[in-house]
Amino acid sequence: MPKIIGSSLEEHREQMHDRIFSALARLAEERGYAALTLADVAARAGVSRTAMYNYFKDKETLLLAHAHHETQRYVDRLVRDLAARSDPVDQLRAFIRMQLTELATQHLSAGALSGVLSEAGRRQMYEHVAPLWDQLRDILERAMRERYLPREDLDVLMPVLAGTISQRAAGLAGQRLERAIEVTTAFVLRGLGARLDRDGRPRRLPAS
């Protein structure tokens, strides 16, 4: 029987998942997802192949579990950050900054995994990231309700906005990343019709 780490079976399982996910992330950065096998990840994590199958039955199951784990951690951080912002325009700025920073530093994405997942797996992957875009939709709805942005059809707007802030930061760092954040934020705010004062503070639109 394998040695239990942690104070309970649940904690043991969580710690084993963290170990396996960490090994997966390192290997993916070195080789890419397509070249990985479950045996590779098990070896890097110091887990026997038999034990590995107790946690994940195949590579796709592992990739999707890792995606869900990382996305949930990201959304949790995002929710905490947004809660500290007083108005929806500042929340939108924070969302763009976090999203571009995440894209610049993380390699896990629906696009990165699309070539190695089944059709069902790709659907699950997009379901995992849905809470992220729900946060953005909530920000925009509040901004429109409180007259920081003009009313628009969010069903039309969301795909355009998601595409704009999901494609600009891969591989960027330092000043180049900061510049991408600055330019993207300014572009999005102008495109949405936000009004700012001379100090960059958001202003409400006139009541209709």
UniProtKB/TrEMBL annotation:
Q: What is this protein called?
A: TetR/AcrR family transcriptional regulator
What's the domain of life for this entry?
Bacteria
User: Looking at the UniProt feature table, which residue ranges are given for the DNA-binding region?
Assistant: 37-56
Query: Could you tell me which species this protein originates from?
Result: Saccharopolyspora taberi
Sorted keywords for this record are: DNA-binding, Transcription, Transcription regulation
Keyword Transcription regulation present in the record's keywords: the answer is yes
Q: Which PROSITE patterns match?
A: HTH_TETR_1, HTH_TETR_2
Classification lineage? Bacteria, Bacillati, Actinomycetota, Actinomycetes, Pseudonocardiales
Q: Which residues form the HTH tetR-type domain?
A: 14-74
Q: Does the keyword Transcription regulation apply?
A: yes
